[in-house]
Design goal:
The chain contains two helices and two strands. It is globular and about 35 Å long. It has about 70 residues and is of the alpha+beta class. The protein has one domain (about 15-70). It has a two-stranded parallel ribbon with strand order 1-2. The longest helix is centred in the C-terminal third of the chain and has 11 residues, at about 50-60. Helix 2 links the parallel strand 1 and strand 2 (about 65-70). The two termini are about 20 Å apart. The chain has helices at about 25-30, 50-60, and strands at about 35-40, 65-70.
Length: about 70
């Protein structure tokens, strides 16, 4: 885990490897709820997403107002 090499970042960044479509897992395992995330970075997911509109709605619900999605 690369984050372990930089302990000063552990209170700033929380990498989460999860499917956005499963909001229950995000909430129960990672405590991610509406308006709780300041940046979402999606890497190599475009072709694995079957319903882009639904995922976009979930992403924007999770993001704090004025924050960023990097897709």
């Amino acid at each position: 885990d690369k984050l372990a090499e930089f302990p000063s970042l552990s209170d700033i960044y929380m990498p989460v490897h999860a499917a956005l479509e499963n909001e229950t897992v995000l909430e129960q395992q990672h405590r991610i709820v509406s308006n709780s995330v300041d940046t979402i970075l999606c890497i190599q997911v475009r072709y694995s997403v079957t319903d882009l509109e639904t995922v976009a709605k979930i992403v924007y619900r999770l993001l704090q107002p004025g924050r960023k999605l990097i897709f």
